[in-house]
Design goal:
Order of helices and strands of chain A: EHEHEEEHHHEHEHEEEEE
Largest interface: A-B, 38 and 38 residues
Shape of chain A: globular
Mean pLDDT of chain A: 94
Largest sheet of chain A: 8 strands, mixed
Number of strands of chain A: 12
Structural class of chain A: alpha+beta
Oligomer: homodimer
Radius of gyration of chain A: 19 Å
Chain lengths: ~280, ~280
């Protein structure tokens, strides 16, 4: 039995072997971590605080590490502030799967932040850096941006118009905000904060826009309040302005997300990243 | 965003093709119905009222009836009073799966009913009739006993000590109450309310005790209040006394559930039903 103080957010997310992690190469602890962190990334994107979660586990019939997996799920859930209060176990002829449903509470004054609130004139921003998550293993070890989401709601209040977490890639996920909000989003390739490759070189902008599984927050801010500075970080994580929200002048603009390159090209950003994870 | 008035119950349940339904023979509408009804049966067992739910769907890559399946999930969720407020879709190399997480609110005065409250001296009761669910197709068309669970909490109040829904079979599920409560449960084979076979003959008691997937409520009642009659039905569904809760005199008794036959045998009821569904 849970005793929320008021409204409740809910989100469900599935982590499936092969699709979301390599079952032969991923430590059990990191499988559990990713399952919990992915689900909580959705709560972070609503600027919510975790309340509690449940896990439905699908185990191959001969799976020998179930106890270890459940212990790790509980430990990571606690670590992320979202204790597990129930679950279900099934054996399956399919891949190992963890289906996590989490509850959260919205920010007390800002309320839940959704993806449909972007307004023409908004700045488009991201937390952290993008790209290379799968190659680097960051997709297994990222921190859900819970503190950052809450800090943005606290600092920006009603100026924080829309937010989403970056799971499928900047282009696709920005397109989701554009579609839900009925606006056009324009991103600048040069402004994307990028992770480095193993040699220390910044990744190509296409990888930052398309790789996916960054689990950073993408959000839009009303810049009209010129008296207050835009924050440069959220809970210590850098914020970068990467674009703007434009009017949807035509039907084709509504839900459009483009990215402008330094060479002057304008590319449909929603088509970047579709093939990232199979 | 949900706005519960107070405490929240949560339960998660998986419906997997082959394991819980025959994917070749089951209409899409009944797949959706069973997924929702199974999850809500858990809320019924807590005497809760449905609040809202989310569904994670796992679809084989070539699955052609996804829209029909989702429409049916929404329709049955509404029908059972538990609107769907979110979801997630993944393609899978495994079987079709629907993982449903439901929220509920506990009874306002009785609070949530759990499986660990059975006391020595309690009567053990069930709603409805038992056995033959898989053969008859009832496992696809049962009504979750939501009204019944609430009515029992309303009528019996604190005399309603423990409750569970019968998914794996009377013997196994009664054993779960016995284990959680640290008591011994004694059932009478002759008293089990039984469904009939296709010729109209009552099923053997072993089938009533072991077939599983009845989704009736099993509950224990404090009989001490001799001034008030035991209800004979809950929301119109018959109630039958099928046994009693005994002291656990020894460690071996704690968590034991036996069934007594008319021939005078005493059988470990927890061993009935293990093989019912593969």
């Amino acid at each position: 039995v849970l005793s929320p103080a008021g409204d409740v957010l809910i989100s469900t997310d599935q982590l499936l072997a092969t699709r979301h992690f390599d079952p032969d190469a991923t430590p059990v602890d990191l499988i559990a971590r990713k399952a919990m962190a992915r689900a909580l990334s959705d709560i972070a994107a609503m600027a919510g605080a975790p309340l509690a979660g449940v896990v439905a586990a699908q185990l191959p019939r001969d799976y020998a590490r179930a106890d270890e997996l459940f212990d790790a799920c509980h430990a990571w859930a606690e670590r992320f502030g979202c204790p597990l209060v129930g679950g279900d176990i099934a054996t399956t002829p399919g891949p190992l799967g963890l289906i996590v449903t989490v509850l959260g509470t919205p920010h007390a004054t800002r309320g839940p932040v959704r993806r449909d609130g972007a307004q023409p004139g908004d700045m488009v921003c991201v937390t952290g850096a993008l790209g290379g998550s799968l190659d680097s293993g960051r997709h297994l070890t990222f921190e859900p941006r819970l503190a950052e989401g809450r800090a943005l709601a606290e600092t920006l209040g009603s100026r924080l118009h829309a937010m989403i977490d970056l799971s499928d890639g900047l282009g696709i996920d920005a397109g989701r905000i554009a579609r839900a909000s009925g606006v056009r989003i324009e991103l600048d390739a040069d402004r994307l904060p990028r992770h480095t490759d193993p040699r220390g070189e910044p990744l190509d902008w296409r990888r930052a826009a398309a790789d996916g599984e960054d689990y950073e927050l993408l959000f839009t801010i009303d810049p009209s309040d010129s008296g207050s500075e835009l924050p440069t970080d959220a809970a210590g994580t850098p914020i970068t302005v990467v674009g703007r929200v434009a009017d949807a002048a035509t039907d084709a603009d509504r839900g459009m997300c483009v990215i402008r390159t330094s060479a002057g090209e304008t590319i449909d950003a929603r088509r970047l990243g579709w093939d990232h994870g199979g």
